[in-house]
């Protein structure tokens, strides 16, 4: 048995890890002994437990229970507690996903103990050193021996940084695995009725990046932006607890509350949120994962940032990197409302098969059977792993 420890810690991790863990348990249980560790970085029910239930992911074997805190304290606490798990389980490999504090902390702990690390979603770069996630991404890649990339730009970034090409695998986007496998369930969601929404008659908004919500200036700019958008289309804003806290701290909650066409709500579950993205006229966000999901769904997306680590959503998908200037954003909103929104296609290999490719590579590398991978490590061949191009839209979400 190949012993692996799979780590999750925050809401995006759950979506990325669920297909991998489920595929191993359904198809490879005689090969892998899997331990699922939840660091507890996100512990609120709306940000954690509901995702385990809706993604049909088994409950964690271990919950480190670290909770919130500064990045330094959180990473240090996770490393200390995770070390005990590694001493107990003695895994052959640790698998981490994404770019949150839990990703970096557990990868560092494993590397210090001489345990190989596989990073799912490797090579993404915003080239913005002020982004906490950028530091997490770069350092996690440095200590990982297997690098699983979602898009071609990520492969090129890793090559440019000097990584051995035999460590790099372009496997597709595992987040889209979850989107595809839960599309019919999401289609049965009643969230639109519960929120009194009509398809294509609302804009969906999410905000949580420090650059947008952690200063009074940034948060004030977001409120000003929403005050313009809501004059033209109804706005639904599922508000992150941290964002709500910042609004109250900066005295902006009352100003937002006066906007009659903006509906605030608590964070919603995974299936409800897919339905909201699918039926929205547009999505305004600063989230990385939502850029990818809207591209797969064919929904126009305006990214309220100056950079993105997911350029395929721009070059191939429906995403427009628009920044945070209210007038520029408003012009893009008007374009979408008048039928001039950005069109796109689903990027290559975003086809719901990423987990299968990853597991086959993990098995081959862990078992010392990697010779058949060396010819084409960047794009694993069709004959080996059943790779297909993901050109279809997610029209089956109904």
Overview of the structural elements:
The radius of gyration is 20 Å and the shape is globular. Helix 2 (49-54) links the parallel strand 2 and strand 3. The protein has a 7-stranded parallel β-sheet with strand order 3-2-1-4-5-6-7, with helices on both faces. A 6-stranded parallel β-sheet has the order 10-9-8-11-12-13, sandwiched between helices. It has 398 residues and is of the alpha/beta class. The longest helix has 19 residues, at 71-89. Residues 369-398 have low confidence and may be disordered. The chain folds into 2 domains: 2-172 and 351-385, Glycogen Phosphorylase B (Rossmann fold), CATH 3.40.50; 185-337, Rossmann fold (3-Layer(aba) Sandwich). 44% of the residues lie in helices and 14% in strands.
Got a strand count?
13
- The pLDDT mean sits at 90
- CATH homologous superfamily annotation of the largest domain: Glycogen Phosphorylase B
CATH architecture of the largest domain: 3-Layer(aba) Sandwich
Largest sheet data: 7 strands, parallel
Based on Cα principal axes, name the global outline. globular
The CATH topology of the largest domain turns out to be Rossmann fold
Q: Can you give the helix content as a percent range?
A: 40-55%
Amino- and carboxy-terminal Cα gap: 40 Å
Gist of the model:
The protein is of the alpha/beta class. It has two domains: 2-172 and 351-385, 3-Layer(aba) Sandwich (Rossmann fold), CATH 3.40.50.2000; 185-337, Glycogen Phosphorylase B (Rossmann fold, 3-Layer(aba) Sandwich). Helix content is 44%, strand content 14%.
Keyword list:
about 45% helix; alpha/beta; 19 helices; disordered C terminus; Rossmann fold; six-stranded parallel beta sheet; seven-stranded parallel beta sheet; globular; about 400 residues; 2 domains
